[in-house]
Amino acid sequence: MNEFAKFIIFSGIILILVGLGVMFLPKIPFIGRLPGDIIIKKDNFTFYFPLASSIILSIILTIILYLIGRH
């Protein structure tokens, strides 16, 4: 039961961090507007694929999870 409690606590912390990220992400000026993000606008159709932002976010999360896993 102790492992399950740790899992629930860790999941809650992750959800809080994701919620804060969703709340503050639009206020960060460069996220989603990097060179390499693909935006195609037609008459009433917009396709947006944040390629460069996704790569940078992946690198940052990889480093964070690597540092957490070392301890």
Order of helices and strands: HEEH
Shape: elongated
> Helix/strand-derived class?
mainly alpha
Give helix % range.
55-70%
Largest sheet data: 2 strands, antiparallel
Tell me the Rg in angstroms: 17 Å
Please give the alpha-carbon distance between the first and last residues: 23 Å
Number of domains: 2
Question: Main sheet: which strands, in order across?
Answer: 1-2
Please mark out the parts with pLDDT under 50 across 5 or more consecutive residues, or reply none: none
Q: How does this structure look, described?
A:
With 71 residues, the chain is mainly alpha-helical. The protein folds into two domains: 1-28; 31-71, no CATH class. 61% of the residues lie in helices and 11% in strands. It has helices spanning 2-24, 51-70, and strands at residues 38-41, 46-49. The protein has a two-stranded antiparallel sheet. Strand 1 (38-41) and strand 2 form a beta hairpin. The longest helix has 23 residues, at 2-24. The radius of gyration is 17 Å and the shape is elongated. The two termini are 23 Å apart.
